[in-house]
Amino acid sequence: MKVFTNDKLIKRRALFSKALSALGLLVLLSGLAASFLRPELYVLPFYTLMTGFLLSNVGIFLGNRYVRAPRPDRALTSAIKALDDRHRLYHYRLPAQHTLVAPSGIYAITPKFQGGSVEWDEQRSRFRHRGVSVLRRVFGQESLGRPLIEAGAEAQRLSKFLAKRFGEDAPPVFPILVFTNPKVNFGKMKNTPIPVLKSSRLNPYLRKRPRGKTLSEDQLSELVSDLSK
After folding, report:
1. Is the pLDDT score of 211 beyond 90?
2. Residue percentage of the chain with pLDDT more than 90
3. What is the C-alpha to C-alpha distance for residues 71 and 79, in angstroms, rounded to an integer?
4. I want to staple 154 with a disulfide (CB 3.0 to 4.6 A). Which of 42, 103, 108, 204 is the partner?
5. In this predicted model, what pLDDT tens digit does every residue of 99-111 receive, in sequence order?
């Protein structure tokens, strides 16, 4: 498999994440100090708490994607590294953050690092996420959010990009949701709108996929040429 990673973007956002986390902590500490040294400024600690909390959480959000080990790009690469060179994996190089070009088609892969228990509630059309403490959700592991919407948006952005670039010759884009945390446990996971896999099952899933419409060698060469500019 061939892998193309935007290392400059990862490094830049990793530094930004660390800076935001440090700044958030500094703001929180300054507010704490002000509450003792200048008690008459009773409103200041409230604002510093909110600002510091916001900065810290943005730092954590970015850190989970560009700092925390294993990073999503490395986890996905490791999961499918045994695939042959007909497969090309693009990290942060295309509108979908993680794009796989395979003989079976084009995939926009949305990774999720959350642990705990995850299951699909078919009646309510949503995921249930359990087994993670409130403290850990606030200070280390963000909530699962709405992964179906996120994955659909990733695929749509990539699909529009390819359609604009190649017109009617553009292949369809398939979204996949992949959980990279080895400690995640799946409950009921039947009839999900898109494939939902553990990273350990991504390789077998792709190998079983039949051949489909994908990018030709000429289209790939043109795409890579544009990306290198």
Report:
1. yes
2. 58
3. 12
4. 108
5. 999 999 999 999 9
Which is nearest to 20 in space by CA: 69, 74, 64?
Answer: 64
Q: Is the pTM of this model over 0.90?
A: no
Q: Report in angstroms the alpha-carbon separations of 45 from 26, 27, 48, 75, 160.
A: 13, 9, 5, 40, 46
Name residue 198's beta-bridge partners: 179
Angle at the Cα of 144 (from 120 to 146), degrees rounded to 5? 70
Give the number of other CB atoms < 10 A from CB of residue 186.
Answer: 14
SS3 annotation, the chain: CEEEECHHHHHHHHHHHHHHHHHHHHHHHHHHHHHHHCCCCCCHHHHHHHHHHHHHHHHHHHHHHHCCCCCHHHHHHHHCCCCCCCCEEEECCCCCCEEEEECCEEEEEEEECCCCEEEEECCCCEEEEECCCHHHHHHCCCCCCCHHHHHHHHHHHHHHHHHHHHHHHCCCEEEEEEECCCCCEECCCCCCCCCEEEHHHHHHHHHHCCCCCCCCHHHHHHHHHHHCC
